[in-house]
């Protein structure tokens, strides 16, 4: 079980990475999920998550691009479906249709492209594919989100009556408008709308001359809004019809909602699936921003990061247009612990955080910005002690807090642990603190833990030099300018350049010289020797780098030429075989031609047959005769191939059976419809659609136009009902 503490995630600024991924998500549900990402608990789940992101990232280079996965949350709709006697309005139903369509499109895409996206295809298989939800809703709701006129006979009649009354009302109102306007009773605007009813805009002085109901007046009082008497009756009738229409619509929506209730769990599954895809897509987009890849996941405990970038630093520097320096570092069973030393501001802490953050990202199912030759493995625990960590709440000093943290390390450290400690042992007396730090480090070493620490303590550098599976490393500096080169060099401790940095920053030489006299001469000489070694190292580094580049190019060129050589050799062998075969055919043709000509002249059949048999025997002598053992081996090989094919076929059969069972479950969940005469139906799993003429004793006569047939009712599938 993999467990990584929240403190470790905070130390490595993992929440900032999650915020970046959350910003890339398309849906609110996805954004929320992205902020809740934590390292995965098992290796199996981790490998699936990494392959999902890697496959999605590869889709940008494929012709078969993954469809859109955006959706609006249906939490409110699912809540309403969970409450009895509630119903969904048309706006809610449109959202359900949208999420169903999006899910079905994705599921169908992955089923079709299972070879390109095998892991995403396997994930999609866990979500049932059905269009029944869409059919149920679209049978009632039109593409504009309104209830269809033919949703029920009553609604159809009501809407026809509403249209008739509306027409009469408009006609009556139009006649009154024309009459009163010709008499000069109306204002320039002529008409208006009050309380959703058409009214005449009558001048206040003529209000008694216009018969009807006064519904209001203008702010100035110069206009009175009157509904003509002739249209009042039509308005009352229209209001009653509209009330009845709403009642019928509610009734229809209640029935539809009840039909959708069995699919609540599936709709919730759709929402979870699409939000998961949204997070996967965001991870892959983030990987593109970082030029991240999926490194080789090693089964043995090792970390080999080549050209590794700190993700947050890389993005910040990219925005500023400045260069980010990559790091290369390795940990394995023969080199489990690395002690990094050197002056401050050289990049020690960033190197530490880079390794930790990339490891946490990988174990959370994210791709990492490293070279393709990099290798990483999975650690069950990652422990960090980075930064000041002074606890004001608990009244603990920096050193007290660090000791408490080290105690936690001692309880958790084992051979599957990665620990990262910045400025190991600081916060107390250098000699005493260094001795205690050395004791801690020895315990971590004995427990075969993997880790990286940064320090200035000479005793820790010496310990790393003495123990076989522990190494020193230093951050390279330019010896002349004392500027950091931000490159890690393994195998050698680093100088702190204490006096050199002080001199560069303008501290008087007399003061520096006085300080030197206060320190043991041996220690100064030791530090100076390290500094000189680093100077030499920086000179050799450029030469080594250039030689490595040339060596790599030469190796690549050799590999390319070897491939070409093999292809040419293969072609030459093929041509030689073809040439030999053709020459033999020509020779045989010439022999047959000679025999044919000789027979044509002398007509001697016996001689012809003898000569021909000689040719056949010569040719057969060249053929290899297979022994019984060889034939048996060949048959065994063929049998093995047949068995492998049969195994694959059996796997496919099992998968099809499982899919059939899922389909049957979905079928059982469908609301049962009682078939009636006149219904359009089809055979289960059939395509032809017919109409039921008669039903008798659980059997129906189905008319297909050209012919009729008797079919059991349970073998028929409802298509639609006669209007």
Quick structural gist:
The protein has 723 residues and is α/β, with parallel strands linked by helices. It contains 21 helices and 19 strands.
Give the secondary structure arrangement, pairings included.
Layout: H1 6-11, H2 14-24, H3 28-35, H4 43-58, H5 75-81, H6 90-112, H7 118-125, H8 132-138, H9 153-182, E1 186-194, E2 197-203, E3 212-217, E4 223-228, H10 229-260, H11 264-290, E5 296-297, E6 303-308, H12 311-320, E7 327-331, E8 337-341, H13 348-362, E9 375-376, E10 381-385, H14 398-412, E11 417-421, H15 430-446, E12 450-454, H16 458-466, E13 470-477, E14 484-490, H17 498-504, H18 509-518, H19 521-602, H20 605-622, H21 628-669, E15 680-683, E16 689-696, E17 699-703, E18 708-712, E19 716-720
Parallel strand pairs: 5-9, 8-12, 8-13, 10-11, 11-12
Antiparallel strand pairs: 1-2, 2-4, 3-4, 6-7, 13-14, 15-16, 15-19, 16-17, 17-18
Helix pairs in contact: 2-3, 2-11, 3-11, 4-11, 6-7, 6-8, 6-11, 9-10, 15-16, 19-20
Large-scale geometry: flat
Helix content: 55-70%
Give me the number of helical elements: 21
Counting helices, strands and paired strands, the structural category is alpha/beta
Strand order of the largest sheet: 10-11-12-8-13-14
Notes on the structure:
By secondary structure, this protein is α/β, with parallel strands linked by helices. 55% of the residues lie in helices and 15% in strands. It is built from 21 helices and 19 strands. Helix 3 crosses helix 11 (264-290). The protein is flat and about 115 Å long. Residues 390-395 have low confidence and may be disordered.
């Amino acid at each position: 079980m993999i467990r990584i503490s929240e403190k470790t995630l905070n130390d490595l600024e993992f929440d900032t990475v999650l915020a970046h991924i959350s910003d890339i998500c398309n849906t609110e549900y996805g954004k929320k999920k992205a902020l809740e990402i934590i390292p995965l608990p098992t290796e199996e789940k981790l490998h699936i998550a990494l392959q999902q992101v890697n496959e999605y990232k590869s889709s940008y280079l494929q012709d078969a691009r993954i469809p859109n996965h955006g959706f609006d949350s249906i939490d409110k709709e699912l809540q309403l479906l969970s409450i009895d006697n509630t119903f969904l309005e048309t706006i809610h139903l449109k959202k359900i249709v949208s999420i169903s369509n999006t899910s079905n499109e994705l599921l169908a895409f992955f089923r079709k492209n299972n070879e390109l996206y095998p892991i995403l295809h396997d994930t999609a298989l866990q979500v049932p594919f059905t269009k029944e939800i869409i059919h149920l809703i679209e049978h009632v709701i039109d593409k504009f989100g309104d209830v269809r006129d033919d949703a029920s006979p009553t609604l159809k009649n009501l809407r026809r009556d509403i249209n008739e009354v509306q027409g009469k009302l408009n006609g009556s109102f139009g006649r009154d408008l024309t009459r009163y306007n010709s008499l000069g009773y109306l204002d320039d605007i002529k008409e208006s709308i009050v309380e959703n009813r058409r009214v005449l805009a009558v001048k206040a002085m003529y209000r008694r001359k216009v018969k009807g109901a006064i519904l209001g007046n203008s702010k100035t009082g110069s206009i009175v809004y009157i509904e003509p008497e002739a249209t009042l009756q039509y308005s009352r009738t229209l209001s009653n019809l509209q009330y009845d229409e709403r009642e019928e619509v509610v009734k229809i929506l209640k029935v539809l909602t009840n039909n959708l209730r069995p699919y609540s769990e599936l709709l919730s599954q759709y929402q979870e699936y699409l939000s998961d895809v949204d997070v996967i897509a965001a991870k892959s987009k983030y990987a593109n921003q970082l030029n991240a890849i999926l490194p080789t996941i090693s089964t043995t405990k090792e970390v080999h990061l080549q050209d590794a970038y700190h993700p947050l630093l890389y993005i910040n520097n990219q925005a500023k247009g400045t260069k980010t320096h990559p790091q290369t570092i390795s940990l394995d069973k023969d080199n489990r612990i690395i002690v990094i030393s050197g002056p401050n501001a050289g990049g020690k802490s960033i190197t530490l955080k880079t390794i930790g953050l990339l490891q946490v990202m990988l174990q959370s199912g994210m791709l990492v910005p490293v070279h393709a030759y990099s290798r990483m493995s999975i650690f069950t625990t990652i422990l960090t002690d980075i930064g000041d960590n002074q606890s004001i709440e608990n009244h603990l000093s920096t050193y007290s807090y660090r000791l408490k943290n080290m105690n936690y390390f001692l309880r958790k450290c084992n051979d599957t642990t990665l620990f990262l400690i910045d400025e190991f042992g600081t916060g107390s007396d250098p000699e005493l603190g260094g001795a205690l730090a050395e004791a801690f480090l020895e315990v971590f070493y004995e427990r075969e833990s993997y880790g990286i620490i940064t320090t200035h303590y000479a005793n820790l550098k010496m310990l790393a030099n003495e123990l076989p599976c522990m190494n020193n490393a230093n951050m390279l500096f330019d010896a002349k300018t004392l500027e950091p080169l931000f490159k890690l060099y393994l195998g050698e401790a680093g100088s702190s350049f204490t006096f050199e940095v002080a001199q560069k920053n303008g501290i008087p030489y007399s003061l520096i010289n006085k300080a030197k006299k206060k320190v043991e001469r041996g220690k100064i000489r030791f530090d100076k020797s390290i500094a000189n070694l680093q100077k030499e190292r920086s000179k050799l580094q450029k030469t080594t780098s250039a030689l490595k580049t040339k060596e790599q190019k030469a190796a690549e060129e050799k590999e390319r030429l070897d491939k070409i050589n093999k292809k040419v050799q293969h072609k030459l062998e093929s041509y030689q075989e073809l040439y030999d075969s053709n020459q033999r055919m020509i020779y045989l043709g010439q022999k047959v031609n000679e025999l044919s000509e000789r027979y044509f002249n002398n007509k001697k059949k016996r001689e012809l047959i003898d000569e021909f048999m000689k040719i056949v025997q010569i040719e057969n002598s060249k053929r290899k005769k297979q022994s019984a053992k060889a034939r048996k081996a060949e048959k065994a090989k063929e049998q093995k191939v047949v068995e492998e094919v049969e195994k694959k076929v059996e796997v496919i059969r099992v998968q099809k059976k499982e899919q059939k069972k899922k389909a049957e479950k979905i079928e059982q969940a469908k609301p049962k419809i009682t078939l009636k005469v006149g219904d359009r139906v089809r055979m289960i799993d059939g395509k032809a659609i017919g109409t039921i003429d008669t039903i008798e004793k659980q059997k129906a006569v189905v008319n297909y136009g050209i012919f009729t047939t008797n079919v059991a009712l349970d073998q028929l599938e409802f298509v639609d009902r006669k209007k």
